[in-house]
Amino acid sequence: QVHLVESGGRIVQAGGSLRLSCAASGRPFGDYAVGWFRQAPGKERELVAALSGTGRSIYYANSVKGRFNVSRDNAKNTMYLQMNSVKPEDTAVYYCNTVYDSDFEKPFGSWGQGTQVTVSS
Q: Rounded to the nearest 5°, which phi and psi values hold at 2?
């Protein structure tokens, strides 16, 4: 029943910053964990960051630790991915999806269209 829509992707210079948004509808946003995933051309989709419904559990992939920050605003039914000091390797289509609190690697919702992030050097 929950529906997630990603937005905010754009072309950005290496070293720059941008913020992606994941807007939810259909169910209270704070009732479930959400993960950010990305898929680059020729590569498998991978988990980038995740946050539990309570905000007490958080995960970052090693490749983005110290550069990305995930947060959520339950009042606005929105989750954010703040991307700082971006690198060309961050170029990918970014998705958000509901995930299990016990295993952030396992999404169980439907995939949306995603939002394209392109980092130029």
A: -70, 140
Question: What are 33's two structure tokens?
Answer: 């964990």
List, for residues 90-121, the tens digit of each pLDDT value: 999 999 999 998 899 999 999 999 999 999 99
Measured in residues, the chain has a length of: 121
Q: How far is CA 53 from CA 14, 77, 89, in A?
A: 32, 11, 29
What is the full DSSP assignment across 43-82?
S--EEEEEE-TTS--EEE-TTTTTTEEEEEEGGGTEEEEE
The Cα diameter of the chain in Å comes to 40
- pLDDT tens sequence across 8-48: 999 999 999 999 999 998 877 778 899 999 999 999 999 99
